[in-house]
Amino acid sequence: MTNRALLPFSALLLLAACNPAAPAEETAADETAVRPRAVVTVERVQTDTLTDVLELRAVSAYPAKDVLRATTTGYLLAPVPVPGQLVRAGQTVFTLQTKEARTLHLDQLTGDPRLRFSGIIRIASPRAGVLAIVDKLAGDYVQDGEQLALVYDQTRFGFVLDVPVTQLRYVRTGQSCRITLPDGRVLPGRVAEVLPAADLATQVQRYTVRLIGPAPQLPENIAVTVQLDKTAPYRAATLPRPAVLTNETQTEFWVMRLLNDSTAVRVPVQTGLEQQGRIEIKRPVFSPQDRILVSGNYGLDDTAAVQIEQRGRE
After folding, report:
1. Within-domain flag for 288
2. How far is the C-alpha of 76 from the C-alpha of 79, rounded, in Å?
3. Contact 243, 255 (CB under 8 A)
4. In the chain, which stretches have pLDDT less than 70?
């Protein structure tokens, strides 16, 4: 076969080799043109009142306790009180019969006014309170000095607050605070006294915290949260927490701000306090017209193409 005969055949092979690439390039270009934009929602910066808060742990306590003890050896007579019973100051709580009186049956002797000792000893509460612990039952034999019950003075109910020594500058006696109970109730309180010793191992200083107003019926050793204001309330610009993005080490923070209805750019920010799901934006200063992405913003590059989800107020 001559060279002239091979020329048309070679041209056909060249066209066949080039033509398959052309449809692939056209398909890639079409996919780029129809690639969907990120659907996002936006909000504007708002001004809120913020307060830097110190949050610490505390436990409920009855610092004033009275131990009721047997004043002699003998037997407890009925009725014997039960835990939770309220007692008045000077009220007889336990009645004790000496073992000599029981042996001689002095309680059955009558008619002789000179016989003034009946062998019955009454043990009263020195102050009003509630019986937290009752250790004995009616008929029990007790020794002189043995504990019978424990009386809590409810008027001295409060909380023991542990303050790290690094935070002592934020706590002072007379300072108002908020006490959050495990069931969610928030009660007003006040720092009452500072205890004159710090724990060597944990390096904490202990304070007592009292409730302002009536105290609920709470047992001892209930863990609560105490919030104290470190700063006075101030006004600051805030954004919802999802609007602020960060890197893995949380050393850089940024938001995505709309340039127009279809383009978002990355703006580095300096954050401050976080309260109730909103973060303070210290820098830069955004205008009330700036629109910040709050959803659909994760993973977007700088100068990203976006599509705003239509909402009523946007």
Report:
1. yes
2. 9
3. yes
4. 1-36, 103-118, 311-314
